[in-house]
Specification:
It is built from eight helices and seven strands; from the N terminus they run αβαβααββααβαβαβ. With 230 residues, it is of the alpha+beta class. The chain is globular.
Amino acid sequence: VGECVPDEWERELVALVALRHATPGPMEAIDLTPGERDWLSSHVSNEHGFLTWMSDRELRMLVVDVIREGERLLFHDPHYRDEFASWLRPNGANSPDGITAREAGFGPLASGAAPWLVRTFDVGPIMAKHDAALAEHAPSLLILWTGRDEVANWLNAGEALCRLELVATKLGMEFSVFNQPLQVPSIRDRLVHEFGNSGCPQAIMRIGIGNKEHPQHRRRASIAVREPAN
């Protein structure tokens, strides 16, 4: 493998790695311009992926329904709920990572008990309603695809997603990824069928400006091992 010397643009993107972060909560209603969407799409294309933007109501509500269905199915599994609960933190917790109860859709009274509630009860309908609302009202909603679903395509998807996130950060935007629907094979198949696409959906994303009152923090690079949940 030969050496690759990064150009000025690539160095700019690397400098944004520490600033890049996901926003699990609501976003301000500021959409990307057509030119910005084309710019993001071109970067994904360079990594052998392609984007579908939910530019009309019918397409958006189709994806919202897929997200809702995925949440219901996954949260019915107690093993999935246990994993999700391990990442939940009380509001105001001083933690290097995780997601607060507020960002997961729990009210202030349930903040401290949120992990127990998730582990004990099938909260699928609640989580489905919460994430479906985030997707429905997202400034920009999109799907990242690859041509096939083989190991090389998974690498392409990761590289495309990383570049997409960095370029969005360059635009002053934040993002979040709806992983749940694509963890269910039947739902992935449904997306392929509904969109009449021969490719494979790898990520459903929203892009916009996050809530500045409750910024999401990133884990420091020096922290190698996740702290156990309380």
